[in-house]
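Section 5.1 Outputs to date
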Amino acid sequence: MKQVLPPHIAIVGAGSVGCYIGGRLQDHARLTFVGRPALAAAVAAMELSDLGGYRRHLEPSAVTFRTDLQDIADADLVLVTVKSGATAAIAAELGAALVRPTVVLSLQNGLRNADVLRRHLPAHVVLAGMVPFNVVQSPPAAFHQGSSGSLMAQADSRLSPFLDAFRLAGIPLMLREDMPAVLRAKLLLNLNNVINALSDLPLREELSKRAWRRCLALAQREALGIFAAAHLSTARLTPIPTGWMPMLLQLPDCCFQRVAARMLAIDPLARSSTWEDLRAGRRTEADAIQGEVIALAVEQGLEAPVNARLLALIREAEQRRASMSGEELLRQLRAAAGRDQET
């Protein structure tokens, strides 16, 4: 009888999210990590953990790491986890490397990555996906899932052969018919990434302080207004309806903490990917988050002054890191929006 091999899954973009998801899948598929040469040592001996108590050490001999996309030419499933700014370049390289029709799943921040991949990969099945949780890397190779949530992907029967691997790995892949709305809802949550980086605080500590939450409320309310003008819906990813989030964020600290505890689990280690990029001296993904809100506003003949100010501030921080209080950021965002009153 011919032996049936487990699926060959390639992780393209061996950063925090890619390493964590790939590490979880390691025992349930043939895994190949593809990344920059500088990441080889970090990927060689990974330590994985999550807020629920999961712990796993991967021996170097168990991990296959490559720097050349030609080494995944026969992959059954490609998970793209590169930063959004690298999507077009990696798509062109994948187009040259993949030798047969392949399922490609974008697990990236932003709204348009799957569309970019599709333009470059017309012979392949390109699907949008979403990672709801934060992953923080601690040198050299510890990857910690610091918040809760289920992976989501655009519903397609061609993902069926891979669902067992995700389920057995403890990171089940939920298939959604409304993926564009899911991505817009995730974008609303990701508007906090820049705010978290500017705060230089762990997510839970930042969100425990009303001034920082009011900043996020301003950014979300602006984005929701632009979505409404464009007749774009958002999915409900938490027990609280999406449109209620700005109001919830403005509650007094004690009230917010009680409500938030029922919505989303966040442990003390969790930080945003933007904070991680800023700390590492990398250009952040703000163009794929705040930049998306600004681009949608322009398409509707509108402005997005709050998110534009956040984008400008994170670009300044990339050049020269400086501390800022929640009250100071709130003052700047209110001024940008032309609001002097309480939000």
